[in-house]
Amino acid sequence: MIKLTVVDRDDTEQEIEIPTDINLNLMEVLKASEYNILATCGGMALCATCHVQVLEGLEQLTDAQDAELDMLDTLPDAGTDSRLACQLKVNEQLNGIKVKIRGEEA
């Protein structure tokens, strides 16, 4: 199991567990866990409504690709610790990370 901590917009924290063999990205997991994520483009890195801030564990994630970086550049509140949840595949790299939901609400 992969365990990660999600901090919602109201600063409530919840640890969620995800099976290691699930073929989803973090955005899909957050939506399935009933977090209020807009995800307008459906995970294509075209809208940035699944913006998350990585509070812990950024160094263990793969680097963002150009499409993700381009989209993050359009956000006024994006920082060096920002990622798009749709671009984070659920795998062992996510184990132990802590993310704060930043994108627009649905």
TrEMBL record:
Source organism of the structure: Pedobacter aquae
Coiled coil: none
GO process terms (BP): P450-containing electron transport chain
Presence of the UniProt keyword Iron in the record: yes
Family the UniProt entry places it in: Belongs to the adrenodoxin/putidaredoxin family.
Pfam families the record matches: Fer2
Residues annotated as domain 2Fe-2S ferredoxin-type: 2-105
Keyword match Iron-sulfur: yes
SUPFAM superfamilies per record: 2Fe-2S ferredoxin-like
Keyword terms: 2Fe-2S, Iron, Iron-sulfur, Metal-binding
Annotated InterPro entries: 2Fe-2S_ferredoxin-like_sf, 2Fe-2S_ferredoxin-type, Adrenodoxin-like, Beta-grasp_dom_sf
Top-rank lineage group of the source organism: Bacteria
Molecular function terms from GO: 2 iron, 2 sulfur cluster binding; electron transfer activity; metal ion binding
PROSITE patterns linked to this entry: 2FE2S_FER_2
Cofactor(s) recorded in Swiss-Prot or TrEMBL: [2Fe-2S] cluster
Gene3D superfamilies linked to this entry: 3.10.20.30
Name of the protein described by the UniProt record: (2Fe-2S)-binding protein
